Task: structure prediction
Amino acid sequence: SSMVIDSTFWHSLEVEYDAIDSIEYRTDLATGIRTSGFGSARLQMGLFTNGELGSYTRYGYVKANDSIHILCDDAHLVIALQTSEATQALYETLLTKVK
Result:
């Protein structure tokens, strides 16, 4: 009934599938600037801002080219796994869960 992002370096997050308004696979989403959270040479997690989404939450790898953009109750969530293949697989799974 929900997706759980269990994170060591930033707040864990649970999103009910029924609360998701839209989901899309993106290859061109600019990360923008992290306003709070965790950043390293490998990971970026926390609150970000960019020109397209405004303020949003991101859980992702720095070198990830592709991402999943989820709109939930007027809040934006971006997930970017380590590889495009892993991100695509998660996206396909989420599509089967979101009504």
Notes: Residues 84-97 form the longest helix (14 residues). The helical segments are 84-97. The beta strands are 2-5, 13-16, 20-26, 33-39, 43-50, 54-61, 67-72, 75-80. The chain has a mean pLDDT of 95.
